[in-house]
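May I ask you for just one protein sequence along with its backbone structure tokens in two labelled lines?

_____
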Amino acid sequence: MTAPPATAPAVAPALRLSGVSRTFGATVALDAVDLEVSPGEVHCVLGENGAGKSTLCNIVFGSLRPSSGSVERDGEPFTPSNPADAIASGVTMVHQHFSLLPNLTVRENLLLGRGGVRLDRAGLARRLAELEEAYGLAVDPDATTGALSVGARQQVEIVKALLPRPDLILFDEPTGVLGPAEIAGFLSTVRRIADAGTAVVLITHKLAEVTQVGDRATVLRGGRVVGGGPLSELTSDDLVTLMIGREVGGLDSVLAASLGLTSPEPVGSPAATTGAAAEAPEPAGSPVPAAGPAVLEVRDLVVDATDGARTVDHLDLAVPGGSIVGIAGVEGNGQSELVSVLSGALTASAGTVTLDGTDVTAAGPGPRAALGLGVIPEDRHHDAIVGELTVAQNLLLGRLDELRRFGMLDRRAMRRRAEDLVARYDVRTAGTDAPISSLSGGNQQKAVLARELSLDPLRCVVAAHPTRGLDLGAVDGVVRRLREAAASGVAVLVVSSELSELLALCDVVHVAYRGRLLGPVPTDDPTARDQVARLMTGAVA
């Protein structure tokens, strides 16, 4: 009698959640969530801000305990008491907000918090070399972390997560701070990680990323699983409908761009480093769009870094009232330094900045805000909010003097004003006395928007990557508010690496290249995308 062929044993899921719920007081963040992730799979978790995605990741990573339900790893109960336990068990996480200490070097950050994985300097150097060879992830271990660009800091976060050779890695909106070229590289890295057998949970709202790299998807809405399955069986329309709870109609072009539903941006390959000796083409075209008088003007602006490199090189810019002007470009071409100078956080080496005809070159952020300048920084978590303060305090930063009565802070008036802003800007919060760190990333951004756009008077808004890392609903709110501001005569400047978004939102787009601005390109020109793509390579002819 011939024995039946042996059956291969079933492989236990790398991660299984069964009926997992999590409450915060009366707020239900997760409600009986079931989820399975297999080894070697990229499992995408989708949902709008506040849907419970980050809470789910934090439970798996040991930062939170579930209120009910169970978590298993490889068929065994998994109850990490803290992130160090999770790391020691082969689970790592790249957070939506940076966990690096800015005053330490990259090496010092990488040697911290390894959850029982011991690496000395030599061991770290060997592991960094392995990661660079395997994934092209190169970092400078001697660089001070706080001096790195946003994209470079995110790369350090990814390297940190890969150091201990995890068999499950969680990515919480990891591409929100990356430019298009960096996103493509990241997605390729994720695919290689999964192909090597590691299970990957990827939280993102960019459907183009999901379809490029994902195997399966789970969609959360209001803390519950509302659908999902193999991505080979789901269309983008299916996923959007599950996320927002209604049929997909004609999406606004900016919203479609934010979801990654438009054609990919031509990113070119301009040099990321700028220096005084670098050859840069002369700026093309007039810096002033054909509109009303300029509210914000920058003339002959120069920024020299401490190492002598010239990051902004005799830059001119004018933003008329009632218009939306965009700045595109690969990160590292002077955009971040320009925004810092405009906000008053960085002093220019030369040149002038005027707001409504007033020279504010030497003015700090406070006087500029008093003149009507609202600023939405590119790193909201680091530069725009104070996580330890309440929602109300963050909404009214810089305006507390207006709320004093007989020399004392009028807390009742403060609460009324904060509640009005929360209602007007649809900030989802348990209350204005809740810490702003308890809000989802999208709601934190809406709070920043509420504070900056409610300035009285408001004459100009400088918004750096205002929709970065936001879901469809939050993007809709940001775009609508910026358009309303421009319609009321406010000058709006938007800096972004999302070219499709800029072309859909702005009247004209400049391109940052080696510290200068090329263009502008009118966005109603049918060849605008091709023109901007050429300028991103430095071509001006």
The first strand starts at residue 15 and ends at 24.
